[in-house]
Design a protein that fits this description.
The chain has 449 residues and is of the alpha/beta class. It has helices at 4-19, 65-78, 95-103, 124-127, 130-143, 168-184, 203-209, 240-247, 270-274, 312-322, 367-370, 411-414, 430-444; strands at residues 29-32, 35-38, 41-43, 45-49, 82-85, 107-111, 149-156, 192-197, 221-226, 254-259, 283-288, 301-304, 307-310. It has two domains: 1-23 and 428-449, no CATH class; 28-414, Glycosidases (TIM Barrel). The strands form three sheets. The chain has an eight-stranded parallel beta barrel with strand order 4-5-6-7-8-9-10-11. The chain has a three-stranded antiparallel sheet with strand order 1-2-3, with no helix packed on it. Strands 12-13 form a two-stranded antiparallel sheet. Residues 1-18 form the signal peptide.
Length: 449
Amino acid sequence: MKTTAAVLSLAALSAGSALKPRQSSLPSVEVKGNAFFAGNDRFYVRGVDYQPGGSSDVADPIADTDGCKRDIEYFKQLGLNAIRVYTIDNTADHDECMNALADAGIYLILDVNTPKYSLNRADPNPSYNTDYLQSLFATVDKFQGYSNTLAFFSGNEVINDPASSAAAPYVKAVTRDLRQYIRNRGYRTIPVGYSAADVAENRLEMAEYMNCGTDDERSDFFAFNDYSWCDPSSFTQSGWDQKVQNFTGYGLPIFLSEYGCNTHTRQFEEVASLYSTDMTSVYSGGLVYEYSQEPSKYGLVEISGSDVSTLPDFDALMSALSGTPPPQGDGGYNSTGGASGCPAYSEPNWLVKDDSLPAIPEGAKKFMTSGAGTGPGLAGAGSQNAGGASTGTASAGSGQATQTGSSGSSGSSSGTSAAGALRPTEFSFAPFACAAVVVVSSLFGATLL
C-alpha cells in the first residue's frame, strides 16, 4: 500500500496534466456591446472554415495532431487569427492541437453539433432531447478550458428557407441551454451564438429573434453565411451596404461565418470592405469558406495524404489579407449593446407565432448540476429519435444560472462580458482535488464518484 505522501505526489502529477488545457498564451475573447475584445483591443475574426474531408468524410481535425500542426503553418502564412471547425469527436484528446493553435495566435470557433447529434429542421421537437443536449454539453466540457476557444455555434443553417423558420424556437432554446450550462458549471464566459443561412426573406427576423426576450434567452453574437459578393463586385453592387444599414444599431457582435463566392475567379475583394470603416461599426470580420479543396471547389489548398499544395485562391486571400491590416481603434462599435424587439409572425416568411421557447427536456436538467459526463463521440448511436424530448413551454427567465459559478455575468445581458475565470497565468485548484479523488479511488477501491 502506498503512503499518503506518495498518493499526494501522484495526485499532483495528475493535476499538472489536467491543467494543460488551461494554459495558453492567448487572452480569452469577450463580448462588449456589439463587438469582440481580447483584453482592451477590439478583436476582428480573420479566419477560415476548417474541416478537411468535408461532410463526406467526417473526422475531427483538432484530434489529428499531425494534420493540425501541418496546417497551422499555412494558417500563419495567411495571417489568420481564427478557424471554424464544424465537427469534433467529444471523446478525443485535443490538447496538443489547441496549444499549438494558441502558440500561433489562433482561436477556435466550434460548432457543437455533429451529423448524428443535431436538430431536425423539419420536425425539431423529437430531436431536441436529453441525448442531444448531453452530447452538446460534453463538447463544451472538452473545450471550455482552452483560452483560445473563442465561441460556440449552437447551430448552422437550421433555418434555410421561409418554411423552416418554424424551427427557430428550438435553435434559440439550444443557445439558451448552452449559455446556462456554461454559467452553472462555473466556466469562464464563452460566447454562444448561431450561424445562420443568408435567407433574404427572414435574415433580419432571425437576427432580431436571437437577440430578443429575457437576458437568459438572448445570444452572445449572431453570424451568417454570406456569398452575395461575387468578384468582380463592390460594397454597393453586392448589397453589403444595405446589410450594414439594416444591422446598424443591432446590439450583438455580427460576423460572417462563411464567405467567399466562387461563381467567378476569387480575388477576395470583399476583404477590403469587411475590415474598413464601411463595416466595422457593425461587423467583426469573418471566416472564408474553406481551407481544403472538397467537391464544392471552395478550397484554398489541396490535401493529398500528408501533403498540402496551395491553390490560386490561397495566394489571392493571402494578398487580400496582407493588404488589409486589422483596423486600428475600436472601429466605431456600439458599446452599449441592447436587446432587439421580437419579430412579429408573418406568413409565409416568419412562422414563429410568439416569444415562448420549449422547456429544456426533463432528463437534461441534471446536467446543469452534475455535468454531462463522457460524450458519445462520432461513433455514437445518434440522438434525433432517442426519446426524452421537451414536453412543455419554458417560463421567462428559466435559463438563468441556478447555482453560482465563477464566470460572472453574460455579455449579452449587460453589454459587457466577464473576463475569463481562468486566465493564462492562473490556475484552478479543482484539478488537484479531482486528481486526488481519482488516485485514492483507484488505490483503495473507494466508490467516491
